[in-house]
Model the fold of this input.
Amino acid sequence: MDEEFVVGTWHYVLAKHAKAMCALERELGDKHGLGASEFEVLDRMVRHDKKLRLQELCDEVHLSQSALSRVVARLEKGGLVTRGVCDADRRGVFVCITDEGRARHTEALPTQRAVLAGVFSDTPALTG
Amino acid sequence: MDEEFVVGTWHYVLAKHAKAMCALERELGDKHGLGASEFEVLDRMVRHDKKLRLQELCDEVHLSQSALSRVVARLEKGGLVTRGVCDADRRGVFVCITDEGRARHTEALPTQRAVLAGVFSDTPALTG
DNA sequence: GCACATTACATGCATCCGCATCTAATGCAA
DNA sequence: TTGCATTAGATGCGGATGCATGTAATGTGC
Done:
């Protein structure tokens, strides 16, 4: 394991993450009233195109269980998703994206893509 | 600009950042009483091996000016760095790592390297 | 069936962050 | 010099996060 390489990669990740996250927070917030986490959750919902257990979302977004719980609560308050109890396991919660949630996602997607394109335009490809 | 590639790279950065950051926070915190940001600042100080203006540090660590100000305040309270006014420009502040700060960094460095090695061990190289 | 461990999610709490703003020092133009 | 813009850093504030814990539902051993 080349230590130089590992540290270099870490610095790269730190820099890109900071730049992209900061820009996303600003752009998505100003233009669409969404935080980066909120958008991320909406994005997952749209991709899966079905109601998801909170736990399933937790595996995909990089948030703690408690943070995700609150993000979903915020989205629900904004009318972008609904929460419903799971009949099979009544501890569980299903999250379901609303039409307004889909619309907001559709509206915000180009903004996200533009930000990411700007940040990663100079990135070399990964050798698989 | 291949959209697929950009989004893929972003997901990679998100995943690695979350995993590494979380592990660093835990390991550095438990074993050495340092946060990731604190370690980052100490690391920059050691690398430069001289007293730095707060502003110079700000260019290197991915923190807002206010966050950096507070990280340095915490480090000072812990005796790991000292702050001194800059004679040339008395608005400026010089940050200077202490012997204890160096010792703590030396002690924590292997922990950081181990965490990063674990996280990035499966990472392919970047094509220059 | 009953007691206890476990799981899914919610919430109290402390911490850290960024933004906006404040203060003090510097630079500059007239 | 005087007045104003700018810069360096500190700080008030609101918001988001993670950890620990709480609550309710489910699973398990006996």
